[in-house]
Amino acid sequence: MSDPKHDVASPVKAANAAEEAGQGGAPHRRIKSFVTRAGRMGTGQIRALQELAPRYRIAHQPSLVDWDAVFGRQAPRVLEIGFGMGDATAKIAALKPELDFIGCEVHEAGVGALLQRIDEAQLPNLRIVQHDAVEVLADMISKGSLHGVHLFFPDPWHKKRHHKRRLVQPPFIADLVPYLAPGGYFHAATDWEPYAQQMLEVLSAEPRLQNTADGFAPKPDYRPLTKFEARGLRLGHGVWDLLFRRRD
Fold first, then answer.
1. How confident is the model at residue 40 (pLDDT cuts 50, 70, 90)?
2. Residue 87 scores a pLDDT above 60
3. What are phi and psi of 151, to 5 degrees?
4. Which DSSP string corresponds to 204-221?
5. pLDDT for position 18
6. What is catalysed by this protein (predicted)?
7. For residues 11 and 17, what is the distance between their CA atoms, to the nearest angstrom?
8. Which secondary structure element, helix H or strand E, spans residue 187, and what is its range?
9. How many CB atoms sit inside 10 A of residue 41's CB?
């Protein structure tokens, strides 16, 4: 790309291309923000995809997007990686009307559910990209443009042999940080303590990030308590929040 802020030769993009081309001996595992799962679609979700997607869903494209034009204004912007069924996403967007939110999710049931919530709550500050967030960042977002990035309850990949599939790894964070504006934040939450510890180690080791707390952070007021999380807390399960900011 001609835009100097948009480096298509990032390590993530290069690794993806090398694997897909089958070059250079043992292929690198392609970094992805999701795992493909099958799921049933409700009639309301199907209808939302048919009727609301043209208004609120942005197609993935291999070039930068004019997000000011998409939202019809200039405002701080937050990207969410993997919003699931979108309940927390919609609640945060309603609570923070001064911010614009870009939600990335690959599963149609979740996209349909969030489209319904956008329409019901009339949330003009929320759009959806139904695509891998890693590629959305690399292709559609200008570097230094994000006020924040949310990653709530990502797949913890419990088994040791699957830990390499966890999203929060040093190469991913190294690629992510340049998309944050100076002072921009990365907020992750998980209910799996070993993954929380790994996230804390990875994020603390990134010199361009600064922890906002002494270890794990208190749950910010804007992050709603999900039904899944509330049930876990009643059973004595922990939840860990991490909130780091990009150094100026």
1. confident
2. yes
3. -140, 95
4. HH-TTEEESSSSSBPPPT
5. 37
6. guanosine(46) in tRNA + S-adenosyl-L-methionine = N(7)-methylguanosine(46) in tRNA + S-adenosyl-L-homocysteine
7. 10
8. strand 180-190
9. 16
Instruction: Identify the band that residue 5 occupies on the pLDDT scale cut at 50, 70 and 90.
Output: very low
132 is in an annotated binding site: yes
Q: Could you tell me how many residues make up the chain?
A: 248
Name the DSSP letter for residue 57: B
Q: Is 191 annotated as a binding residue?
A: yes
Query: Does 80 count as an annotated binding residue?
Result: yes
155 is catalytic: yes
Global pTM? 0.83
Helix locations, the chain, DSSP H = 11-21, 43-51, 53-56, 67-71, 87-95, 108-121, 133-140, 170-176, 193-205, 227-234
* Token pair of 155 as six digits: 């797949």
Give CA–CA dist 227/230, Å, rounded: 5
- What letter represents residue 161's amino acid? R
Q: Does the annotation list 201 as a binding residue?
A: no
Give the active site residue among 7, 87, 119, 155.
155
**Domains recognised in the chain with CATH numbers:** 48-246 (3.40.50.150)
